[in-house]
Structures are given as C-alpha cells and as structure tokens.
Amino acid sequence: MARGSPCISTNVRGSQLLNLEAIAKAPLVTEPVSAFMVPGVLSPVDLAAVRADFPQIADVGVFCVSELIFGPSFRELIAELQTPLFQSVIEDKLGVDLSDKTMTISVSGRSRPKTNGSRLELMDHFVTCLLYLNDICDDRGGRLRLVWNENGRGMEISEIPLCGGTLASFLESDGDPHWYQPSGGELRCLKLRWSLIEAADNDAS
User: Fold this and answer.
1) Mind listing the pLDDT tens digit for each residue in 68-119?
2) What is the DSSP string of 55-121?
3) I want to staple 138 with a disulfide (CB 3.0 to 4.6 A). Which of 75, 95, 134, 199 is the partner?
4) Count of H-run helices and E-run strands, the chain
C-alpha cells in the first residue's frame, strides 16, 4: 500500500477501468435539473479489485485522497478519474465547460445513522460526480435521493441505489438538487467536484 496522490492532478492516461461509452450513452435528465446516472461503469472483476485495494476508513466523514493509503487498483481508478478524457466525457454529457474549474476527489467509507436525509453541502460546486464502490448489489447503505428545491418546497425527481459501480452526476448551477439518505454503516464512495472557486488541498465538505 502507498500513500495517495494530491487531490488535484494533471494525469493524462487513457481510461482502462471505466466504461466511458456507458457514460456517454446514459440518458440525461434536463428538467428540472441536469443529471444522469449510470450503473456498471466498472465491471464486476474491476470493482472487486478496486474494493480490495480501497483505503481502510474507520471513521465517518469525507477524506482527501492524499490523506489515505490504498492499493494499486484503487490508485489506477483515481488516475483515470483525473484524466482530460474522463472530464471531456462529463463535459459533453452535461453540456458544460470545466476547463476553468478546479477538480477535487475525496473519499468516504462510512456514513452516520440518520432517520432523515442529510443535505450534501455543495454551495461552491459546479458539477459533482459520485462513484459508489459498495458491493455490486449492496443497497443497504441507503440511497441517493435527487430533490429539486423550489420556493422552499422539495420535489423528488428520482432515487438512486448505491450499488457498486454506479456513477451519478449533477449540474450544481441548476439549483439545489442533492439530498443523501444514509442508514449508517459502510458506504464507499468517491466524490468528484469541479468547483467555482479555487479548492484547498483538503476537501472537507
């Protein structure tokens, strides 16, 4: 195991683990908020390898990649997520330009028990991608509930199972679409965020 690379990277390797074609072909919801969800962006074999090399995280919360120790398959996945190729797929899908945005990657391994959904703090973020690395059919950690807040009223758009290999992405500038409803326990997730402001080395949101 080796310590992780910084949150922000200029790695230019091509994709080997991620199914970018599946992302490119995923249906895009544009009303009332731009969002898409893709199951199976990692094959079962690659998901198992990444899970085996996932950093050991005993505490709840979100951690910068550079704070963690992990194995080669997890490192390879991080490298692919930091490539211009992956960013261009997200740009094309959401119809945005991310070249002037700051991208960070953070990791969570566990969630707090909640009786009600807790809001993800995303005020300064432009685009978010969430890649879940739970068991391939494990939905016990809760679900991602996509909610559009308008005039203080919440309108649910969809609810996304958190099975391993599922990627969900949202355009933050459309409003306030994020609510997460965990049940507590293990919840493995990579959080990619392109921010409107310059990001610090540690993504502590």
Assistant:
1) 999 999 999 999 999 999 999 999 999 999 999 999 999 988 776 654 444 4
2) ----SSS-EEGGG-EE-HHHHHHHHHHTSHHHHHHHHHHHT---TTSEEEEEEEEEE---SS-B---
3) 134
4) 4, 11
